[in-house]
Each structure stands twice: as C-alpha cells, then as structure tokens.
Write a structure and sequence with these properties.
single chain; 72 residues; binds zinc ion; mainly alpha; 1 helix; 0% strand
C-alpha cells in the first residue's frame, strides 16, 4: 500500500511507513488539510473551466437563447 504522507510503497499489511513512520492503519481521515486543498483545487478548476467556457460561448449562447425566446 502507498503511504499517504510520502507516497512511497510499503508492504500491504504494514502498520507504519518504513520511510517516514506515518501510521498506515487509519489514513482515511475525511477532512485532512491535503484533502481539503485537493477539493478546493478541483472546485477552482471546475469554476475556472466553466468561466472560460462561458466566455467562449457567451455570444453564440445569447444568440441561441434569443432564438428560443423569440420563437415562442
Ligand atoms: Zn511514508
């Protein structure tokens, strides 16, 4: 199994990382700092992607919405 702290490979049933001493038995804390940073990064990338897509598609989308609005 891979060490959460240093990323090095340890034996499958190892209790502690032999490289950095990290406890490998309970690495699944849901709200660690790295987990939160990863989540924030993913959210930021998603928002940025949608923002860029919005900027790129704003004009054609407005034309499209205008076309629908005037159709009915
Ligand atoms: Zn380690």
């Amino acid at each position: 199994m891979k060490c959460e702290k240093c990323g090095k490979e340890n034996k499958k049933n190892a209790s502690f990382c032999k490289f950095c001493g990290e406890n490998l038995l309970n690495p699944e804390e849901p709200l660690t700092l790295s987990f939160m940073l990863k989540s924030l990064f993913v959210i930021y990338v998603l928002i940025f992607t949608f923002y860029v897509a919005y900027l790129a598609l704003e004009k054609p989308f407005q034309d499209f919405a205008y076309g629908i609005a005037t159709k009915y």
